[in-house]
Design goal:
Length: about 150
């Protein structure tokens, strides 16, 4: 549903976070775009699960190339590249692709990208808010259960 009023990035991130089964919905859209393929895999003899492997790694390679260029240059970034770096930084994905030595080398550039753009700051804040909410959602039931059990 289209909205006529501007909303902060955090509200949009929260809206996406509330979509049920978002992982499978997005994966199926990527299947239609021919980025992923849909396969059924057997496990435990009686069960099957749907998996979505990449058709080729060209999309991932293109993303890595854009991120490398963003991190290793001092040029002004396109907003989508700044957003990409901010998302990868906030979610820890940069840790998967770069060694600790490499991350130390471009640590200041990541900070510059995240803090230097309005989108980067909002993205970082939104991701951290969602992560905090997930921790609270996981911890509060355990606290309540222990409190009730001890009474």
């Amino acid at each position: 549903k289209a909205s006529s009023k501007d909303r902060p990035l955090q509200s949009w991130v929260m809206k996406f976070a509330q979509i049920k089964d978002i992982k499978n919905k997005l994966a199926r859209e990527l299947v239609q775009l021919r980025v992923l393929k849909q396969d059924e895999k057997d496990f435990l003899l009686f069960f099957t699960r749907t998996v979505f492997p990449e058709r080729t790694n060209s999309v991932e390679e293109e993303i890595k190339k854009r991120v490398d260029e963003a991190l290793h240059s001092n040029l002004e970034l396109a907003p989508r590249d700044g957003l990409l770096v901010a998302l990868m930084s906030s979610t820890g994905i940069l840790n998967l692709y770069y060694s600790s030595k490499e991350r130390r080398a471009f640590k200041n550039r990541v900070k510059e990208i995240v803090n230097g753009s309005c989108i980067g700051k909002e993205t970082d804040e939104a991701i951290k808010s969602i992560q905090a909410a997930q921790v609270v959602a996981a911890v509060v039931p355990a606290i309540v259960a222990t409190t009730v059990a001890s009474n």
